[in-house]
Amino acid sequence: MGKSENVGIGELMQEEYRWGFVTDIEQERVPKGLSEDVVRLISAKKGEPEWLLEWRLAAYRHWRTLSEPHWAKVHHPPIDYQDIHYYAAPKKKAGPSKLADVDPEILATYEKLGIPLKEQEMLAGVAVDAVFDSVSVATTYKEKLASLGIIFCAFSEAVREHPELVRQYLGSVVPHTDNFFASLNAAVFSDGTFVYVPKGVRCPMELSTYFRINANDTGQFERTLIIADEGSRVSYLEGCSAPRRDENQLHAAVVELVALQDAVIKYSTVQNWYPGDKEGRGGIYNFVTKRGDCRGARSRISWTQVETGSAITWKYPSCILRGDDAVGEFYSVAVTRGRQQADTGTKMIHIGKNTRSTVVSKGISAGEGSNAYRGLVKVLAGADNARNYTQCDSLLMGSRCAAHTFPYLEVKNDSAQVEHEATTSKIGDDQLFYLQSRGLSAEDAVNMIVNGFCKEVFKELPMEFAVEAQKLLAVSLEGAVG
Amino acid sequence: MLEISNLHVAVNGTPILKGIDLTVRAGEVHAVMGPNGSGKSTLAHVIAGREGYEVTAGEIRYLDRNLLELAPEERARAGIFLAFQYPVEIPGVANIQLLKSALNQVRRARGEAELDAMDFLDYVQTRLALVGMKEELLYRSINEGFSGGEKKRNEILQMAVLEPRLAILDETDSGLDIDALKAVADGVNALRSHERAMVLVTHYQRLLNYIRPDRVHVLAAGRMVKSGGPELASELEERGYGWLDTTAEVGEARA
Q1: Domain residue spans in chain B?
Q2: For B2-253, which CATH class?
Q3: Residue ranges of the alpha helices (H) in B56-210?
Q4: What's A390's DSSP letter?
Q5: Residue B14's pLDDT is what?
Q6: ipTM of the complex
Q7: Looking at the whole model, is its pTM more than 0.90?
C-alpha cells in the first residue's frame, strides 16, 4: 500500500487497456496517400452516385487549401497525411450483409469487446451498428425498427436505399468546408451510421454504433447523420476502441444531428480509443467534429460524453439553437492520464428566442495528463431571453498534471442571461484517508471520489452505459493516486 | 485489545508523541484528555493509520497483531473505527453508498456474507433508530452541507453501522450545542458493549457528563502525565490542566 509501489502500479496501468488486441483478418485497402484518385476510388468502391462523388471532390479540393489547425492546447508531431491508408475493409463482399455472412473472426472480435451481434445474444433494448475499420459489418434489430419507419443502417446503405434523405441533410449541419478535419472527412469518409426517425415516433430502444479500428496505418473517417423528424425522439450511443500500437492513428469523424420541431435527440459517447503507452508512444488522435442543429421550435439536443481514451482528443460537440424555445445540453467527463491530452468542450449558438443551454464539464487529470475545456456561448441579436448555464469543474490527481479552462462569450442581445462557474480541486489526502479509514482500498476510495465528481454527467447516460462508464473510469485511473 | 507501548511519533521531524503507554481492554471506555497541542489527535490518527506520521520508537499491538504494519483500510476491516474531529465532505457520493461499501468490506473481512441492497436498507434503518437520525440523511452527499452537529452524528451512524471492536472518537464533542452533544452521547452509550472498547479524545470534560469512562488519562506535551478513574475528569474540570506537571515520568501513566 506504500507509495514506493506506485511505479509498479503505474506500469500495471499500461496493461489495463483491455481492448488492445488485433483481429487477424484478410483485408483490402487502398494504397497510402490522398489524391483525387483515392477519393474517386473510395467512392467507386461504394458504388456512389455522381452527386456524392462531386461533393467529396469539392471537399477534397477545399481541404487542400487549408492547413492543420494549431490553436488547441495539444502538441503532436506533424501528421503526414500521405502516409495513411484512407480505406481498409475486411475482405468480404461490400456493404452490410446478413449476420450469417459476417466473418466469424469479426463476430468474435465484437463479442470480446462485449458487443454480441448474434441474434440470440444481442443486447436487449439496444440496437447496434458495428463499424469495423472503414465499413459497417452488421446492424442488429433492423427489421424491428423498420416496422416503425425508423431507418437505422450503415451510411453507405443509406446512400443506396435512401439517397433523397441523405442528399437533403448531408453537410447541412457540418458543411464540407467547415474545418480542416471535417473537410478531410467529407473527402474520404468510408462509412458510419445513418438514422432517421419519422414524425411523431419515439424510438423504443437505444441505437448504438460501435467503432473499431483494427488495421494498422489506417485512419478511421466515419460519418454519422441522425435526423429526428417533427415530434420524434431518439437516444443514440457510440462506443469505440482500437488495438495497442506504437504509431499514432488518426480518427477524424463527423457527426451531424438534425432535430426538427419538437424533436429530441440524445447523443451519448463512451470514447475509449487506445490512449498510447506511458511514454506517450502510439494512441489515437481523435479529431472529431460533432454538431447538432435544433432546427425546429422546441427541439432539444443533448450531448453526453465520457472521454477516457485517445492520445489526443479534439472535439467540441455543439448545438445550433435555431428554433425558438430550443434546448441544447452538453455533459462531459474527460479523463487524461499518462501523456494524454484533451482539448474539448462545446459551442452553444443561440439564434432563436427563449433558447436555453446547459454545459456541465468535468475534467479529470492524472499523471502528466493535460485537460482543457474550451467552450463558446454565442447569443445572436435575435435571441431574446436566451439563457446559458456553464459549469466547469476540474479534478487534479498528483502534481504533474494540468487543467485549463477557456470560456468564450459573445452576447449580442441584452436580455440574455449567461452564467459561468468554474472550480478546480484536488483529490485530498484527507478525503482518501477518510474513506480508507472506513475500510475502502485506496483504489476504491479514488473511484468513489471520482464517480461522485462525475455524477451529474453519469446520470445523463442510459443506465447500462452509466455502469460501463464507471467501470471504464475505474480502469483508466487504476494506480493514478499515491 | 489495544496495547500501546513507548510510542514516539514525529511529524516532519518534530517529535509530537514522546513515549506513550496505553492499554485498553474489551468493554472499557477510556478518555484521553489534554490541552490543545498535547498530541491527542496525533494519537488518534496514528492508531487509524494516517500517513505523514513517523513512528520513531515503540509499538502498537491490536488483538495481538502489530497494528503499525497495517494499511488504514486493513485496520478498519480489523475493527478499528475513527470518528473524525472534522468529517470530510465527498461531493456527489451519497452517504448510503459509503455506508454500504464500507460495511461490506468489513463483513467480508469478518468472513460474513455481503448484504444486498434490500437487506442493507433494513439493517441501516435499525442503526438510524439507534442514533436517532433521519433517513433523509442517507441520500445526501457525504457530509456536504451538513451542520456541525449532523456531521458528528453522521460519524456515530457510521460507527453504529460498522460495529467496530475499537472506536476512537476524536473531539466528537467539539462544536456541538448541548442537544447535539446529548444526541451524540446517547448514540455512543447505545453502542457500549462488553466486546467493544472506546477511546474518547477530548479537550473538555463535558462529554464525560454523559458518557462515563472507566479510565481517564491526561496527555500533555506528548506524554501521559496522569491516569485515574472518572473522578479525574471532574478534578480537571475544576482545576484545569495547569496544576499537572507536564514533565512527569512516563511510566506513571500506565493504565
Answers
A1: 2-253
A2: alpha beta
A3: 72-77, 95-109, 117-131, 148-162, 178-190
A4: E
A5: 93
A6: 0.93
A7: no
